[in-house]
Amino acid sequence: MFPDRVRRHEVSRGHRGRAGAGGGVRDQPSDLDPASGETPLVGVLVGSASDLPVMQQTTAILQRFGIPFEMRVISAHRSPDLVDEFARTAEERGMVCLICGAGMANHLAGAVAARTALPVIGVPLSGSKLSGMDALYSTVQMPKGVPVATVAIDGAINAAILAAQIIAVRDPEVRAKIYEFKDSLAEGFKP
């Protein structure tokens, strides 16, 4: 099971935007390991702070199921070293699966999946001119040997439920909460 699981949650940023000399935004790394005393089971990576409103639906579901998580804002393109470090250390830090949400050229999930044996769930986000189709294609079209389980565009809730189901394989408490959740969905459709 997961005996060392603690039920606190941590949100931190893997990078902070800062105006550069050219007026653009540069990534500045922050601390990778916030001192929280918890063992997160799910890592939630978000490609940009602008994606947080959608991806916070993921963390709300994880909280509902009592699953500890760690959330980071890390860009696959602007802070690849942080992505690499997070992905390579996630398993040894106790994580069971990773959820990656990004829009446009969503390479975050694939970059993470290439560096870990943990299951990776990709959430394509709709914030682009193509309404998320670009993010969907770049998330779902992975090369052989680098799988990413992909949910619908803006499917942050289903990503969290899938992560919970992965954890529930070995955690009867989470499994019971999933069954309760699914029963509550069915109740809404009774005549």
Describe the protein's architecture and organization.
The chain is α/β, with parallel strands linked by helices and 191 residues long. It has a single domain (37-186), classed as Rossmann fold, CATH 3.40.50.1970. Helices cover 35% and strands 19% of the residues. The protein has six helices and eight strands; from the N terminus they run ββββαβαβαβαβαα. It has helices at residues 52-64, 80-89, 108-113, 133-140, 156-168, 172-187, and strands spanning 10-11, 15-19, 25-29, 42-46, 69-73, 97-103, 120-125, 149-150. Strands 1-5-4-6-7-8 form a six-stranded parallel beta sheet, with helices on both faces. α5 packs across α6 (172-187). The longest helix is centred in the last third of the chain and has 16 residues, at 172-187. The chain is globular, with a radius of gyration of 17 Å.
Please give a handful of descriptors for the protein shown.
alpha/beta, 6 helices, six-stranded parallel β-sheet, single chain, two-stranded antiparallel ribbon, 8 strands, Rossmann fold, 191 residues
